[in-house]
Amino acid sequence: MDGLGERATALERRVMPEEGLDQLVRALARRGPVYGPVRQDGATVYGEVEGAQDLDLRCTPFTYSPKALLHRPRQVLFRAERAEGFVPREPEEDGRMSIIGVRPCDMSAIAALDQVFSQEYPDPYYQRRRQNALLAAVNCVEMAEHCFCTSMGTGPGLAAGFDLLLTRLEHGWLVEAGTEEGCAVLKEVESRTATDRDLQEKEELIRKAAAGAKKQLQTEGLPGLMRDRFEDPVWKERREECLGCANCTSVCPTCFCYDAYDVVNVKGDKVERTRCWTGCPVVDFARVHGGNFRSDRGERFKQFAYHKLCYWKDQFDRLGCVGCGRCMTWCPAKIDIAETAQSFRRGGEAR
Amino acid sequence: MSRHAANPLKPEPAVIKAIRQETYDTTTYTMGFREGERANRFSFEPGQFNMLTLWGIGEAAISLSSLPGGNGTFDHTVRSVGDVTNALRRLKVGDTVWARGPYGTPWPLKEARGRDLLIIAGGIGLAPLRGVIQAVTSRRSDFGKAELLYGARTPADLLYTTEFDDWRRGGLSLTLTVDAVPEGARWEHNVGVVTTVMDRATVRPGGGVVMVCGPEIMMKFVVKELLARGFRPGEIFVSLERRMECGVRVCGRCQFDGRFVCRDGPVLPYSDIKGRVGTML
Ligand SMILES: Cc1cc2nc3c(=O)[nH]c(=O)nc-3n(C[C@H](O)[C@H](O)[C@H](O)COP(=O)(O)OP(=O)(O)OC[C@H]3O[C@@H](n4cnc5c(N)ncnc54)[C@H](O)[C@@H]3O)c2cc1C
Ligand code: SF4
Ligand code: SF4
Known about the structure:
The structure holds 2 protein chains of 2 kinds. Chain A is α+β, with helices and mostly antiparallel strands.
């Protein structure tokens, strides 16, 4: 289990000076575009970065998670042209890319998406981007207001799954390489071998971060508890509050649902079959001809909450929430699914 | 689970070989894949479905409405209700439709061997069951009793009327009902929703399998009546309809409770639905 991250499996552990981060970004940039958390319009989002000066590595809940780089918000599936008898062509592949600054909770979300997109019929669009992505994660040394990774066992430290793993020490950065490619990148950066003291410092930092968790969700038996409380009056309150805007599902790093449609040029001879994110709070999510299986906004919100905290367990043998805190941070109605679920433990008073 | 290597979202061309107008809004297309091994042999089981593409219009989930034909052909019976299903009506024999599949769970035909079979269908819900009827009437001795209760809105909405006599000759007992008979229309069978003819079925609990397909509200009442007559949840199979964008357990649209209807269904034993939230059943 991740969480405290002490036993991170690494091939190599080194310490870079403060300026090493910039060298690291530039080393990654030689392999392809590098995406990392950047400030934009008052929020932290993933954007292309050229050097360390572009990065915002504070532990804040970024609006968009790395999901947006792997399961694209909008993805052309096929192009088909009348002149070619509409024989569909797949879009050209993107090359190698790096994602830097991936939080432990988001690494767990990527592992969840890996499961979703590699079932009986693996999704080639996700697979290609995923295989092309070098993941440079960063351990959390502080917890933001809505973080509850400690409850979900997904942070603040990371144990596995990374190419590179950074931890900000008092002096410099500890960099652990989990793959051969991570080791190769590390060779291009000025660094020294990490000592036991460096590793102890890391463990201490993560332990301190974990102790600062302000939010808790008891997960033991949670799917069963959620089922027992399906008709709980608290859901009626949430029904009245939820706007059905789907901010929650957009920012959630594990939400994967999509809509598919054909985009046609004016002459009608070129088609782009496209998919784009959608989410269960959207009114026509479950609409079919002649009816809507979730016409009630409250039922749609419940689908979100229940999928994350209950149904996911049936489907993928884990919970669908990694405790990143995004949905509650970006919900205009300040709805907090973790707090709602946790309130059941206290006998049910809401919020 | 076996893993499929090719792009699962990529449809392949299929040529329309025959078209039959069933009713004013419903048409049956016989088609066959144009290329590859599937052109000669397309394997599937009744209850499964394909995703049909018309480029520039979109994709729709449509049940296979026949058994596999000897020369790789297969049928789809489509009711025109929206973009894709209306655009299909403009096609002619020889035109190309793009298809991918088969997807989803089939009706439990193997389990039904040697046992009684009760089929209850409403409206377009008979389409996914036509392959079952073809199997039963062509291998009649493999099954015990075979009964169909079929309801439609009006006599003009009944599908496959030209096949009813063949089905009867093949040993299927047919009970028909319509919700209403417009003035001037000829109708010598029952009038009322399908539950009003359920007492005419002679298949009894414990002896067979019940297959139900129709609007969810109709299935809700049918299942209720079946349970009241002593049928066990594991003997009743229903086919659910949900919105689908992918058919391969990824788009998330068809979920209810922990299930993906496209893969865990569309055919599910009622025992798998009972106690789960998210359906009317
Ligand atoms: C497993 C399965 C089997 C089906 N079998 C048949 C069949 O044999 N014959 C038949 O006539 N119809 C069948 N349907 C219903 C058929 O899929 C819809 O009528 C069709 O998708 C409507 O598409 P449209 O573009 O014409 O309508 P529009 O309303 O224009 O469609 C717009 C969007 O809504 C979605 N949508 C609308 N209605 C449905 C629906 N009922 N189910 C799923 N998605 C929907 C479409 O995917 C599309 O993205 C089946 C549905 C499912 C799920
Ligand atoms: S829970 Fe909040 S973010 Fe999600 S749809 Fe409702 S109002 Fe929007
Ligand atoms: S449900 Fe909310 S807290 Fe959980 S992973 Fe999704 S966005 Fe983060």
